[in-house]
Amino acid sequence: MLDKEFKVSIPCSRVKLAVEHVANRINSDYTGKEVIFVAILNGSFMFVAELMRKIKLTCRISFVKVASYEGDTSGGIVRELIGLKEDLNGKHVILLEDIVDTGFTLDHLMRQIRTNYSPESIAVASLLFKPQSYRKSIPVNYVGFEVPNDFVVGWGLDYNGYGRNLEDICIMC
Ligand code: XMP
Ligand code: MG
Which domains, ranges and CATH numbers included, belong to the chain? Predict the structure, then answer.
């Protein structure tokens, strides 16, 4: 794709099972509670679509859009493109990410939410997590897969905008 080679790392069937497992854990941890999911665009859209079909709770979903990556490296500066419009006061909030890498994006959103609202609780669910690259201390409560520090695409994740449609999670060779 473009100037880089990618190979399948996690096949689609395993990704779907992992997302179902995350949904089951959320369903049991939040039984009887109402949840507002906040999905971080663009990359999370496929994870979110798969996850939400398996969530059995009373819930709503809202979307925010931020960007921190240029090509295959994290910029560290988080630009906000679509802001949060929902009132999160007193709510059980679960942030949905495609991948938590350095954690800058998550940290930025967490600070913003805590500055503007007083939610009852905040948790994080991410399809992928790169523990070796993580530089923050916010717990990532629900993780589909931990991945090494390589660049991945597919399942919503992109390389310069391409590859979001790949049905397997693929890794840069
Ligand atoms: P940070 O470093 O803020 O990164 O935790 C979070 C955002 O950066 C993107 N990201 C990636 N996108 N392959 C991608 O396609 C990757 O390996 C990768 N690592 C980070 C992603 O948008 C994530 O929300
Ligand atoms: Mg993202």
Answer: 15-147 (3.40.50.2020)
* Closest listed ligand to the CA of 63: 2
| pLDDT tens-digit readout, 125-151 | 999 999 999 999 999 999 999 999 999
Measured from the Cα of 159, ligand 1's closest atom is: 15
Give the confidence band of 83 by pLDDT, cuts at 50, 70, 90. confident
Residue matched to tokens 């179902």: 20
Ligand 1 nearest atom to the CA of residue 78, by list position: 3
Q: How far is the CA of 32 from the centre of ligand 1 (A)?
A: 33
pTM above 0.70, yes or no: yes
N- to C-terminal Cα separation, the chain: 11
Name 93's bridge partners: 36, 122
Instruction: Give the position of tokens 């399948």.
Output: 8
pLDDT, position 34: 98
From CA 6, how far away is CA 1, in angstroms rounded? 7
Our answer to whether residue 150 is catalytic in this structure is no
* Ligand 1 site, residue 50, Cβ cutoff 6 A: no
- The verdict on the CB of residue 158 being under 6 Å from ligand 1 is yes
Side chain identity at residue 85, one-letter code: K
